[in-house]
Every structure is written in C-alpha cells, then in structure tokens.
Design a protein that fits this description.
This protein is α/β, with parallel strands linked by helices and about 220 residues long. The chain has a single domain, classed as Rossmann fold (3-Layer(aba) Sandwich). About 50% of the residues lie in helices and about 10% in strands. A five-stranded parallel sheet has the order 2-3-1-4-5, with helices on both faces. The chain is globular. The structure holds 2'-deoxycytidine-5'-monophosphate. 2'-deoxycytidine-5'-monophosphate (DC) binds near residues 90 and 123.
Length: about 220
C-alpha cells in the first residue's frame, strides 16, 4: 500500500489520556481520528450480546470477521463490562487479524481525503503502523488513571467504587501487556509522555510540541 498520509500513533494503557490527546491532535492538524479500542469493544459487545464467552477464541474471531459499522454504535461500548470483554477478545490472534486491515486502510487513506490520521490504541506504533511519522506512548500512574476512569463512570451514572475501577484497570493492563500477540508496549522509537501531573491543556501542549518537533525533523 502506498503511504501518502501522515500517521500519528498514540498508544498507552487504560485511561492514560490517549483518547483525549489523540482527538485534540487530530483537530489541531486537520487529520482523521480513529479510536481503535472501539473496534475491540464492538467485538466484545457483540460476543456478550450473542450470549457468547469472550474467552472463546473461535467465536470471538467469527464476531470480528463479520463486524459491521452499526456494531460501532452499540450503546454499551464504553461500559466496564464491555471494556473487560474487549481486553479478552483482543488476546485472540484471529480477532486482531480481522481488525488490522480496517485500521491500516484508515491510517493510509484517511476518510474525507484528510492529509493524515491519528490512531490511538495499544499496538499502533508497534504493529498497525510501525512506520508512523510520530509515535507517542502515553502513561500515567495507576491511581491517577483509576481516579479519572472512576469520575468518567460516575459522571455517566454508573455506580462503581474506586477500588473496583482500580482492580479492573490493573486486570486489563495485565491482560494487555502479557498477551503474546501485539502486547501493549512502547515502540522503540516512541516518545513517552507521562500525564500523571498534567492537566488536559498542559498534556495537549506537551503532545503537540513532540509532534511538531518530530514532523519538522
Ligand atoms: O482503549 P480501550 O480501553 O477502549 O480499549 C479496549 C481494549 O481493547 C483494551 O483493553 C485492549 C484492546 N485494544 C487492543 O488490544 N489494541 C488496540 N489497538 C486497542 C485496544
């Protein structure tokens, strides 16, 4: 595939702030934005809705292979239950393979004829777009990430304790880091950005500074 678009890869663990950063970078540069986690969430949600077990690899792969645009609009996509199911189906190589082409096509031929694309996920800089022009790996301490996620869920009216959110987040991190296919890890040439002590605007500025400096060099 001929690569003519500028690709920015934004990877990191749950609630590190990568979604917000990626969206803001896309706005700033006029690039298309893809939240790749929503693809895995859509597969997880489909499996649950069909009464399947996210640990059933064959079933999860089948659900991924027949994923439709409407699955991305499922109303439960951002729930904790679907997040955990997404992390489980993401272990399955057949699921990852089924979603790879869609992500690459988006990156290399962004919708709307945009000149570039920002993709956020876990393996964008390592597997999906190893030649991305800029790679960011966004992190934050566990307690900070759990507090952010907890607030997000409370704001949405989900009643869940901070301890529960922290435990789920650690379980998801462990699943994402330890899987053998495309585990969560920074690419060797990724720029690390720790957002633990940064407010949103400061984090966006720090990320944009890295992107601008890298694109210029
Ligand atoms: O970013 P998120 O929390 O919405 O992602 C949900 C799950 O999807 C995450 O726990 C792991 C998986 N995922 C992945 O394996 N690879 C990606 N590029 C994006 C998400």
């Amino acid at each position: 595939m001929t690569v003519s678009s500028v690709v920015i890869a934004v990877d990191g663990p749950v609630a590190a702030g990568k979604g917000t950063l990626a969206r803001r970078l896309a706005d700033r540069y006029g690039y298309a934005y893809l939240d790749t986690g929503s693809l895995y969430r859509a597969v997880g949600s489909r499996v649950l809705r069909a009464g399947g077990d996210p640990a059933d690899a064959d079933f999860a792969a089948k659900m991924a292979e027949s994923l439709e645009e409407s699955d991305l609009a499922a109303t439960d996509l951002r729930s904790e239950t679907v997040g955990l199911a997404a992390s489980r189906v993401a272990i399955v190589p057949g699921v990852r393979a089924a979603l790879l082409e869609y992500q690459r096509r988006f990156a290399f031929a962004p919708p709307g004829g945009k000149p570039g694309a920002v993709l956020d996920g876990r393996d964008i800089g390592t597997v999906v777009c190893p030649d991305a022009a800029v790679k960011l790996f966004v992190t934050a301490r566990d307690d900070v990430r759990a507090a952010r996620r907890h607030k997000e869920l409370m704001d949405k009216g989900e009643s869940v304790t901070f301890e529960r959110v922290l435990a789920d987040l650690r379980q998801r991190d462990e699943q994402d880091r330890s899987r053998s296919t495309a585990p969560l890890r920074p690419a060797d040439d990724a720029h690390l950005l720790d957002t633990s002590d940064l407010a949103i605007e400061a984090a966006v500025t720090a990320a944009a500074d890295i992107v601008s400096a890298t694109l210029k060099s």
